Amino acid sequence: MFIDRVKIFIKSGKGGDGSVSFRREKYIPNGGPDGGDGGRGGDIIFKVDSGLNTLSDFRNNKQYKAENGQNGMKKRKHGADGEDLIIRVPKGTVIKDEETGKVIADLAIEGMEEIILKGGRGGKGNQHYATPTMQAPEYAQPGQKSREIWVKLELKVLADVGLVGFPNVGKSTFLSRVTNARPKIADYHFTTLSPNLGVVDFKEGKGFVIADIPGLIEGASEGIGLGLEFLRHIERTKTIIHIVDAASVEGRNPVEDIKAINKELAAYNEELLNRPQVIAANKIDVLDSDEPIEELKAEFEPHGIKVFPISAVTGKGVQELLNEVREILSKLDDEPIVFEKEYFIEDELNIDEPIKVEKIEDHLYSVEGVKIDRMLGYTNLDNEKGFDFFQKFLRDNKVIEELEKLGIEEGDTVQIYDLEFDFYK
Known about the structure:
Blueprint: E1 5-11, E2 44-48, E3 63-65, E4 85-89, E5 93-97, E6 103-107, E7 113-117, E8 148-155, E9 161-164, H1 171-178, E10 196-200, E11 208-212, H2 227-231, E12 239-245, H3 254-268, E13 277-282, H4 291-300, E14 306-309, H5 318-330, H6 345-349, E15 356-361, E16 364-368, H7 370-377, H8 384-396, H9 399-405, E17 413-416, E18 419-422
Parallel strand pairs: 1-3, 2-4, 9-11, 9-12, 12-13, 13-14, 16-17
Antiparallel strand pairs: 1-8, 2-7, 5-6, 5-8, 10-11, 15-16, 17-18
Domain OCT: 347-425
Domain Obg: 1-158
Family: Belongs to the TRAFAC class OBG-HflX-like GTPase superfamily. OBG GTPase family.
């Protein structure tokens, strides 16, 4: 079964807690702190698997959780890191935030993998908090919390060319003639229930991939019929072939069909109308006159959209059409169309997380938080200007104010993760 859209819950692993422990050995009754650090929580990683072409594996499993880090142990033993969870998806899978619909990542390249949720950092054991004035610290750092989010996975097929047209205009017949694809073909609407992909090969030069997008109807962009379910598959295509029934076998007007489909494409995503287009005027083998072809040319060729009379049944005119499409593609970028990242997950999940300021023991204070951690990542504290910038950040975020409320005095120690500072006004 072809599944191209699912919603799942993902959660990274929590960091293990640091240990509070003291060395207790024969002849050493009052040894120093030896609590080990907690292990890192596992990441949630999405990876492209070339063996997959649908999201059907997610139908029965909606929750994915990475392993938590183990707590630290005595004798300075480090807790084991939690195992990362690798979630395998087909190439072309777009990961979106379920609530906002914004793009978190687009896995459009073979072998691509991306960490979507990072596991929590392991907490430090009490061995790190010993000072000359506090030789037996009863404090260890807790592990960082896990991260969790609901995401939507959408599979948008990777193809150079998208075939569009109303039902029963001959798209499946055309695809089976020009490629190695063998779609099921029947004479009723929406017989194609999933996008069919085929490769067009040339004796000389590079070929291209065609996606047969299921037949559209007016209102498809608003969810009428099945159109909305498949319009997403044309978003990556670099050029579009409109196939119309030039013979009007079902009484349709081919000119109005092209206009109606372009209207649906624009309603779904206006950028689609900027892609190069060609028209395949199909079923000329049963056409009584050239009048419909001339009408199509008069309407669309002044706008740069070429019209090719073809018969998908006999093959007449098909090669000329394929040559034109190859020529168009040769002028375009070879790289696949990739959707830009819109949702920066760590920033969004941590936006309201406060900075934690606490007193550990007399003369020892701790400051932690995602904002602080991020600031340390891009601030050069060895540089006077950088250090002044960091101090201003602490004041602006009321960290200094909180330390003063807790009773900090000049000369006391402030620990910020792996760094220690002496407090002076």
